[in-house]
Amino acid sequence: MRKGLLSLFAVAALATGAIAADKISGAGATFPAPLYYDWAHGYAAKTGNQVNYQSIGSGGGIKQIQKRTVDFGASDKPLSPEELKKDNLLQFPTVVGSIAVAYNLPGVPDGALKLSNEAAAGIFLGTISTWNDPLIKKDNPSLNLPDKRITVVHRSDGSGTTFNFVYWLDKISPTWKSKVGVGTSVNWPVGIGGKGNEGVANVLRQTPYSIGYVEYAYKKENKMTAAQVQSADKTWVELTVANVKEAAKNAKWTKQDHFHEILALEPGKKSYPITAGTFILLPKEKPEQNKKVIQFFNYAFENDAAAERLGYIPLPNETVKLIQSYFKDNGL
């Protein structure tokens, strides 16, 4: 649906006489896709320049930029300095988002369900298989939890959302760490797959008694319900913009390591623990095309109200200035 919308943006620009001076193409993460589409629409209306973004998952975005079939790749998994050097890439963040532990549990409203670290890990490991399991009931004495089998929904494609979600599970569960681990795709012990954040959201909406993980913008757009989880300080934390901001303000990105930082489990009693940055990858050897990409993202940084409206957290001004300094350091 969103790919079609983006095509309509380009057609509309041409139909109104706004002939594009430049075209740039990108592909990758579904996590920031709603925001990138919004920015692309505004950028086309203002400049006539077209941005064609394909929401195919972080794994696909990394592969496409490695093959140089797009002008920029997008990934929610930051690449290490060693990986960037190997593929001759630059990297910078664009926005901060969060991942909802979303559930379809009839009669249980948004934020009412509490899932401890042990309960959340047990569900996704498959060792907790029904909603009335004692480990879930212990933290939810006022909820009428049914004796219904839990259907776990996860990503079927290579995904930065998956990377950040299982990174969190890996940090809170020694069993997950030893049996499953971290990656953009993993061997899930249990569950059914959906392609992209869109696919997981659709399966969750259509499957009573299911649970999965989606980026907050998809949770918000689809009016889904999400659990409270435990902060790094073991307090109960709801998924709210304010609580994601609490986590995001602890980010310590630097130019020296190409902004490589994972934001899960930032300290603070109100810090939402499954918070993540999302990143753009550029080929070092294409400075002229990179400048066109950077013009788009500079426009994006100046129009961060769209990020707030869609449930993302804009980068602090200090971080934006650091990114723009990084561009200059690399001749852009």
Summarize the structure.
With 332 residues, the protein is of the alpha/beta class. The chain has helices spanning 2-15, 33-47, 58-67, 81-87, 117-125, 134-137, 160-172, 174-179, 196-206, 216-221, 241-248, 287-302, 305-310, 317-329, and strands at residues 23-28, 50-55, 72-75, 89-104, 151-155, 192-194, 210-215, 225-226, 229-230, 236-237, 275-283. Strands 1, 2, 3, 4, 5, 6, 7, 8 and 11 form a 9-stranded mixed β-sheet that branches. A two-stranded antiparallel ribbon has the order 9-10.
CATH class of the largest domain: Alpha Beta
Q: Shape from CA axes?
A: elongated
Written as H for each helix and E for each strand, in order along the chain, the element string is HEHEHEHEHHEHHEHEHEEEHEHHH
According to CATH, what is the topology of the largest domain?
D-Maltodextrin-Binding Protein, domain 2
Distance between the termini: 34 Å
Computed structural class = alpha/beta
Helix content: 40-55%
- How would you name the CATH homologous superfamily of the largest domain? Periplasmic binding protein-like II
> pLDDT average, as an integer?
92
Total helical elements:
14
CATH architectural arrangement of the largest domain: 3-Layer(aba) Sandwich
Total strands: the figure is 11
